[in-house]
Design brief:
The chain is an alpha+beta fold. The chain folds into two domains: about 1-80 and about 255-295, Sandwich (Immunoglobulin-like), CATH 2.60.40; about 100-255, C8orf32 fold (Roll), CATH 3.10.620.30. It has helices spanning about 125-135, 140-155, 165-175, 180-190, 280-285; strands at about 1-25, 35-45, 50-55, 60-65, 70-80, 155, 175, 195-205, 220-225, 230-235, 240, 245-250, 260-265, 270-280, 295-300. The longest helix is centred in the middle third of the chain and has 15 residues, at about 140-155.
């Protein structure tokens, strides 16, 4: 599937600010069958952007606006080809739980086994993970059982949490958004000694608009299966990740991969608006990227 993504972030300040330094993770990943065909980043007021790679292989961009400004707008447009088949297909080899030591671990594997900023491995979490996995001894089947459990036991409720909500709070209230569903699933998977990482990205909802989390940045989980690789699970929509999901970055949890973060000098009075639009290029034919604000500097990266 070929998809086009527009992501627009706008900050409006109560008075002029300056020295606005930002780091953005908006460029889609190229890996596991996904390919980022093109990426355009625009910043208004105009600023030079510089691309870097973090310790997990994610591409991020930095820019700084020195001059006073009352509005900051960051707009990215991407074109991505996503895989048409999940990594684990019928007939894929079985991986028993507890066999990871027999296989070579990829770089960063151990970073995704323990607690992190928004994920805990408390005794209560371990108990819930064991109960949800039941009698499953196959790692992939157990991981899917945990995904089903999170989907069933949490209520999807927009604006019920915020970006700094810990999974303990989510387990207590049993409600949240896609970020919270992902954090809870990470805790359960890691409690079964499965290496699992947080994924940020987008979700193509299609004309029927039946999936949750497609109106903004989306989040899901990848679990590592020895001898096979990383496989995606979306607990918000209770499905294996393939085709409709566009990966941007992965980390231990949300703290490692926020789409936009930064600092500035000036007023604390600000208003944030975010617009995300994901469209199928196959449905409408190739069209030029739309939605860039006038008078901005464009940075292009193609892979």
């Amino acid at each position: 599937m070929r998809l086009q993504i527009l992501h627009r972030t706008c900050y409006r300040y109560g008075s002029a600010v300056r020295d606005n330094f930002n780091e953005v993770r908006l460029m889609p990943y190229s890996d596991l069958g996904q390919r980022c065909e093109s990426f355009l980043l625009a910043v208004d007021p105009q600023a030079s952007t510089f691309a870097y790679t973090d310790i997990y292989g994610n591409i991020f961009h930095q820019f700084q606006v020195f001059t006073p400004h009352a509005v900051l707008e960051v707009c990215s447009t991407s074109r991505v080809e996503t895989p048409g088949q999940p990594l684990l297909y019928p007939g894929a080899p079985s991986v028993p739980l507890g066999t990871r030591a027999a296989y070579p671990a990829p770089d960063g594997y151990f970073d995704f086994l323990g607690p992190s900023t928004f994920v805990s491995l408390d005794p209560e979490v371990r108990s819930e993970a064991r109960g949800a996995a039941g009698t499953q001894r196959d790692a992939w089947q157990a991981a899917q059982a945990l995904m089903h459990h999170v989907h069933r036991s949490l209520a999807y409720l927009p604006e019920s949490t915020h970006v700094h909500t810990h999974m303990r709070e989510v387990l207590a209230s049993r409600r949240g958004v896609c970020q919270d569903f992902a954090h809870v699933l990470l805790g359960l998977l890691r409690s079964l000694d499965l290496s699992a990482r947080y994924v940020s990205g987008y979700l193509y909802n299609g004309p029927r608009e039946t999936l949750k989390g497609a109106q903004a940045s989306h989040a899901w989980v990848e679990v590592f299966l020895p001898g096979i690789g990383w496989a995606g699970l979306d607990p918000t929509n209770d499905q294996v990740v393939v085709g409709r999901h566009i990966k941007v970055a992965h980390g231990r949890d949300y703290a490692d991969v926020p789409p936009v973060k930064g600092t500035y000098r000036g007023t604390g009075d600000r208003k944030l608006t975010v617009e995300v639009r994901v469209e199928s290029l196959e449905a409408q034919g190739d069209v030029p990227p739309q939605g860039f604000p006038a008078g901005t500097a464009h940075s292009k990266a193609t892979s």
